[in-house]
Amino acid sequence: MGVKNPSSLLPLRLAGLLVGLPALWGCVDPPVSQARHAELRDEAPLSVCRSKLAPVGGGRGKAVVRDLDPEQWTEVLVPGFQQEEGLEPTALDCTGHYIFANESLRGGASERGWPRMIDPDDMTVSAGPDGLRVLWLRSMKFDNGEEGGPLALARAAGDAAEIYGVGSFRGPPGAKFTPARVGNDNLLVAETKECSPEGLDCRKRAFFYLPRRGRLIEGAVIDLERTAVVPSVTQRGLFAQYKLSTDITYQPQGVLLLEQVSVRITETKVPDLDSDRELRTVEFARFLKIERDSMFSNNDPLWERVVGRD
Fold it and tell me: What is the pLDDT of residues 118-127, one digit of tens each?
């Protein structure tokens, strides 16, 4: 038999809920608290080195982000470092590894010899969200004009400085560094730009580093900007210029890359040749996914599939 007036049951239902509430009150707080702690653990990087700092005032109940000078950061990164003695080539970083023993630094030399005295201008300190810092100690030079040295992802807050990963980087002096967040992973992204002596072919790249077991491991390298001029296949006697631009979006599951390659026929002074014109534009999206110690793309780069076909 159906209920003709469902609203008549409301008082009974409310009474039942009120009877059950006292039993529930004692169980509500712990799950909420646990969920919050889990959220904080997911958001905070896992430090591999921690150094005490002289305490500073302010920030009641909250660790205040601090800016350290290059000498202080070097002391955190290399516990045995003393400014008056400099850095030895066999110096150990805070994880116990030789700080200059990296394949990327092979062939480099300290122009000021060893032990190397640290000048404040030797260290590039780049700021990121949540107080994260990228440290690049440019302590070696190479024949092609590049510089190299230890690389670290770090943060100083309250009365402690923490290191989340240590590695090495070699590149042009103007390289830029930024921390990035992908899901529960903190990445270190290095950007470089290099051009040929004529300035016709340029290449801007992004190097993605993953903090793993105290080290910074190169997970992937992508082209952000790239240009090239090659003989045209379809327009005989003319040259095709290719230009790549890549937009990066960081997502919880990985890194979305939107690549665009524009093609134009370059200008020529040969009479009766139709030059200096746009030919076509190609766009493609691909995805970089983090898997353990590397990053994998779901497709080949657009540049490799387009250049030389026009």
Answer: 899 999 999 9
Partners of 98 in beta bridges? 92
Coil, helix or strand at residue 176: strand
Cα–chain center distance at 224? 14
The predicted model scores a pTM of: 0.81
Domain boundaries in the chain? 46-173, 175-310
Cβ density class 145-156: b for 16+ within 10 Å, e for less? ebbbbbbbbbbb
What is the C-alpha separation between 190 and 207, in angstroms, rounded? 5
Contact 115, 99 (CB under 8 A): no
Question: And the tokens for 193?
Answer: 């730009």
- State the pairing for strand pair 277-291/294-297: antiparallel
Pairing of strands 239-251, 254-265: antiparallel
Say if CB 233 and CB 222 are below 8 A apart. Answer: no
Residues 6+ apart with CB under 8 A from 106: none
* Residues in the chain with pLDDT values less than 70: 1-44, 57-62
